[in-house]
UniProtKB/TrEMBL annotation:
Domain of life per record: Bacteria
The keyword Cell membrane is annotated on this UniProt entry: no
Biological source species: Leifsonia kafniensis
Residue ranges of the annotated DNA-binding region, renumbered to this chain: 38-57
Short name of any one Pfam family annotated for the protein: TetR_C_6
HTH tetR-type domain residues: 15-75
Name used for this protein in its record: TetR/AcrR family transcriptional regulator
Keywords, in A-Z order: DNA-binding, Repressor, Transcription, Transcription regulation
């Protein structure tokens, strides 16, 4: 039997510092956006010098890119179902709710989604691809439910997919503004219950390793 070796020494320390920087960037970018954040702000949040920050990330754009890549990696394996249908829809809801355990991450997603509508924004292409992939995932999910006879809505699968994403984003904005007043998971379940003709178990994340 073999055991997986873990990074040691200077390399392990470097990885730890990089992760601390990314964790801090989630909070700082989430609070002030890309344009309102400076490398000095990030360095101060991490507790290192700007030179030390530049050693790991030479520019603010490079840091934003790494932060987005890290964020996407946390959930990308959830969105690769063995088959599409009710279970893949429940996973989507569970991921949206799971994000709320990291308010800074939700703030980052919300601010970048708005900022990146400008073509010159460094995250513009990334967010285009992210929303395109989410629409495809949900379109296939709703279409599978339609093919199984479990969809009662007359709306096209593509429209239901876009509506589900818009609802998720809008609910997160309201939740950030007033957490006690908005139950994101309940609202998403309510929407799904209005368009499917089947019992809806509790949303859940896959138990397999990501």
């Amino acid at each position: 039997m073999t055991t997986e070796s873990k990074p040691r020494g200077p390399y392990a320390k470097s990885l730890e510092v990089r992760q601390r920087i990314i964790d801090a960037s989630i909070e700082v970018f989430g609070a002030t956006g890309y344009y309102g954040t400076t490398m000095k702000d990030i360095a101060a949040a991490v507790g290192i010098s700007q030179m030390g920050l530049a050693h790991h990330f030479p520019s603010k754009e490079a840091l934003l890119t790494a932060t987005i890549e890290w964020r996407d990696k946390q959930s990308e394996n959830f969105f690769t179902p063995a088959e599409y249908g009710l279970d893949s829809l429940l996973v989507y809801i569970a991921v949206v709710v799971e994000d709320q355990k990291q308010p800074g991450l939700v703030e980052l997603q919300t601010i970048l989604a708005g900022e990146s509508t400008t073509a010159s924004h460094p995250a513009h292409a990334t967010h285009q691809a992210r929303y395109r992939d989410l629409r495809l995932y949900l379109t296939r999910t709703f279409q599978a439910l339609a093919d199984q006879g479990d969809l009662v809505s007359a709306l096209p699968s593509e429209t239901l997919a876009s509506t589900m994403i818009a609802l998720s984003d809008g609910l997160h904005i309201q939740w950030l503004l007033d957490p006690d007043a908005v139950d994101v998971g309940a609202a998403l379940r309510g929407f799904v219950l209005s368009v499917v003709a089947t019992e809806l178990p509790e949303p859940h994340l896959p138990t397999a390793d990501r």
